[in-house]
Batch of 4 targets.
Target 1
Amino acid sequence: MKQRPFTAVLIVPTGIGASIGGYAGDAMPVVRAMAQVCDRLITHPNVLNGAQLYWNAPPIHYVEGYALDQFAAGLWGLQPVHQNRIGLLLDAAIEPELRLRHIQAAEAAKTTLGLNLTDYVVTDAPVGVELRTAASGASWGTIQNEGTLLRAAETLIYKAQADAIAVVARFPDEEPDDPSLQDYRHGVGVDAIAGAEAVISHLIVRQFQIPCAHAPALSPLPVDAEVSPRAAAEELGYTFLPCVLMGLSRAPRFLTTPSPQGIWADSVDAIIVPANACGGSATLSLSQSQVITVADNHTQMQVTAAPLGIKALEVESYLEAIGVLAALQAGVNPLALRPEVSRLHCIT
């Protein structure tokens, strides 16, 4: 009898300054390595988006954050696909030249990668993105005009038959000498736009139950010789759109009614999260699976597993986490790989 697929979920929460996964696709090496010891590895755009850099492999499932929470709660299933037809949604606030840059990036993905794109839609009014920072240092944001975003998405779904939606919204330009921006570019700060990006994709996924991811439209920044390697992917060009289009091209669709088809939360064997960022909805929902917390992925949060009543196996690094996953995949208790093994005791 064939064993069921070994399934893991990798989460690095958005906009909390994670030292791995808090920058431009810098957690992709983790995903690539983990995919070698998992039959199915479910993760989210924050982990996989690397501006013009991306990686796709059959075990990797690209699932937007709100949908991932719904999946973890057992409310939605994931239906893998060979290809999605992607609709491109552009904010009316994007300047003509910058809009053209994004249209050309989409046309390049269609031509060079063979992706299936619909014609694009421009919102009937500016989306109105506003950026915020919480007291913890985490980033978040709001949008002033939800209606224009939803109307444009509806056009792509019902008139262009889009299976997934890539959104490009005009974000406020940051001053190059802003200390928080300099910190981020130099590898020690928080991504100021990540929280607002999540708001945009959450809105569309919640409303239409369709895969969605976001790429910000921003004016290019001056060259900085001190940019950190972790942030360097964002320095490559005028757009962050290619990684979004690639991720959405094979993103699983959502099953919102009970079905024997697809992937459901009860098939998850392990979930991997930063050690001090355990308070997310998906982590709490999947806490009966094997929770693996990674100590050296530092974030701005201070929410560890123990106070939440989560029994977790803490490891020092993602390299060690990959070893734990390999042991679980093999049916070996990871604790048996340590030099000291506890004795058995009688239950009274």
Note: Residues 151 and 238 are 27 Å apart (CA to CA).
Target 2
Amino acid sequence: MTRYTHILLDHDGVLVDTEPLYYRATRACLAELGVELDLPEYLALMVEGASAWERARPLGATDADIDRGRSRRNALYRELLVSEPIAIEGVEEVLAELGHHCRLAIVTTSLPEDFAVIHRDRNIVPLVDFVLTREAYRRSKPHPDPYLAALARFGIGPDTALAVEDSERGLRAAVAAGLDCAAVHHPFTESQDFSLATWRVGSLAELAERVLSGLDG
């Protein structure tokens, strides 16, 4: 078993339960432009890193309409972040334990403004070495850029680093960066293809057990 010295953690769906809320906000604001976005289509677009907003153009939406829709979506999403439960039980405890043995980073496609709202009253960020949000790299997942940026920040290659993801898009990004990747189960993305994952685990606690058993060995 590989002895991992660094763990690169996805954020939404792994550390906080926010992905269903982002879909809700996107679906609601696209509906104002006449677009009905069901979950299977949203998940398919998510895998490719594609924009659902392009579906509004054949219905007559202009660039300005789409920009306004995105702004409304962002505002609604932030309202949901502070009004809905998004904590995942045991995350802080697992990160604290892993942090005794490995270097940790969060590698996310979240906008920095959204990330700040999520972590206003949480104790997750102090448990990791650094955070890379969407402005920190050129191309988003499923491109490898976010993970390559994290590896460069640590000054390491991919051989002893493990990515942790809950989506096929993130898994593709990790694999493209040359990383092993553990896929953590989340019901929102469970229909996606995780066949490229090094491991599939039910929770972060299960992941920690595997990583730490490798260190003990």
Note: DSSP finds eight helices and six strands in the chain.
Target 3
Amino acid sequence: MRKEDKSTVIEQIAATIKEYAHFYLVDVTAMNAAATSALRRECFKRNIGLMVVKNTLLKKALESLEGDYSPLYVALKGTTAIMFCDTANLPAKLIKDKAKDGIPGLKAAYAEESLYVGADQLDALVAIKSKNEVIADIVALLQSPAKNVISALQSGGNTLHGLLKTLGERPEA
């Protein structure tokens, strides 16, 4: 590959990393062409970008970006693919669903402005909640006290209504 081509590829990788909020480095060494194609199709269905890259070009792309990505460099061995996504836990869920015998295996990830290195971090990455999941949890927490108040008022009103009705139906003594 010519030097001009390499610099173009490095710029393309860096631009793609900047475009997405999260990226995962995945080991696809033991995957054949059919398995890789199936993984690409599944990524496309879930709105996850997938790019197989040379480790040296990826390292140079990471070095060209702002921020310190040096802890990820230890993961740049073997055949590496990058998964790009705007939702932090989607690639982790895909890897967990599809991984058979550790293929594809997680090498490292940059999610929610944190670095995760090693396959043992997969469960932590799956547990990360997306923005919409956090908003749903907050809305549920805010609605809970209001529902309790409304329920108490309704039950109190029903009790008072039943008491008045019973008193009204009683024969005068």
Note: The longest helix spans residues 131-169.
Target 4
Amino acid sequence: MADKILVLDDETEIAELIALYLENEGYTVYRASTGNEALQITEKQDLSLAILDIMVPDMDGFEICRRIREKHFFPIIMVTAKVEDLDKIRGLTLGADDYITKPFNPLELVARVKTQLRRWTRYNTHGTPDSDTIDIRGLHISRSAHTCTLNGEKLELTPIEFSILLYLCEHQGSVVSSEQLFEAVWKEKFFNSNNTVMVHIARLREKMHEPERKPKYVRTVWGIGYTID
């Protein structure tokens, strides 16, 4: 069954171009030109991924991303005409997994879609729950089932968040630099992407109810990176 992808963009030519490239790769595409239309599609279809333009008439992409994340955990790629880091950080904070800046090469967008879908597929492929597990002081991770619990409570993590936590746990006791973490999780070269890593670490800590100053699990080693002891 083909993956279903939502494309939200009020510029018809751009939406059609994105849809054309994605459909040529075998994906089923649902187009929306307003935020409300996008949210309706989200509720009616079992989506695998969403591509959200930030600037649409009735509500911005940030608000749409926030509403989607209240119920769904599939990957979200934000599309922005701006290049400010604050916009990127805001989108990541609200639950976006990736972003791309206009004008962009459609082939690059397709590549990013494939990367996110591969990660999402691995995240949702369940194996034997008791195999390949990691236990660290009440933090339980199953690699095969792609699940994580903390003191018996399930953590609702996005694929990116799960990959970050798993990588840190696999390197327990070692300090992992932002560059190493970014390249391991995003599978891309690190180009001053510390903000991206930092925002996702902050979201992860929030979901784990970690105290800001003295976190029990994910600690910052200033000037070097992150570690789990």
Note: The domain at 133-228 is CATH 1.10.10.10 (Arc Repressor Mutant, subunit A).
